[in-house]
Amino acid sequence: MQKAWECFSKRAELDNLSAIYWKGVYVLDIEKNEKLANQLFQDAADRGHAKAQ
Predict the structure, then answer these.
(1) Alpha-helical runs (H) found in the chain
(2) DSSP annotation of 47
(3) Which of 13, 24, 49, 53 is geometrically suited to a Cys-Cys bond with 17, CB 3.0 to 4.6 A?
(4) What is the pLDDT of residue 45?
(5) What's the pTM value of the predicted model, to 2 decimals?
(6) 3-class state of residue 4 by DSSP
(7) What's the CA gap between 32 and 17, in Å, rounded?
(8) How far apart are CA 34 and CA 32, in angstroms?
(9) Cβ contact 45:17 at 8 Å
(10) Is there a contact between 51 and 31 (Cβ–Cβ < 8 Å)?
(11) Residue 19 and residue 38: Cα distance in Å, rounded?
(12) By the 8 A CB rule, do 25 and 39 touch?
């Protein structure tokens, strides 16, 4: 799981919307941090990511 987190984080830093969304999924499902996950989903949705909307 650490590899997945590193992958999502690096790509999210480059404004990859899918990576921001999947980072939110990871945070919600693995870390159980609903507040941070919702922030990530909102960020992705605000920028047009279809699954995050």
Answers:
(1) 2-13, 17-29, 34-46
(2) T
(3) 49
(4) 97
(5) 0.87
(6) helix
(7) 21
(8) 6
(9) no
(10) no
(11) 14
(12) no
pLDDT by 10s per residue, the chain, length 53: 788 788 878 999 999 999 999 999 999 999 999 999 999 999 999 999 999 98
Can you tell me the distance from the alpha carbon of 23 to that of 26, in angstroms, rounded to the nearest whole number? 5
Residue (of 49, 47, 27) closest to 36 by Cα position: 27
Per-residue pLDDT at 24: 95
Q: Which amino acid is at 35?
A: K
Instruction: Give pLDDT, residue 30.
Output: 92
Classify residue 21 as left (phi > 0), alpha (psi -120 to 50) or beta.
Answer: alpha
* Residue 16, both tokens: 């990859």
| Chain position carrying tokens 């949705």 | 45
DSSP label of 6: H
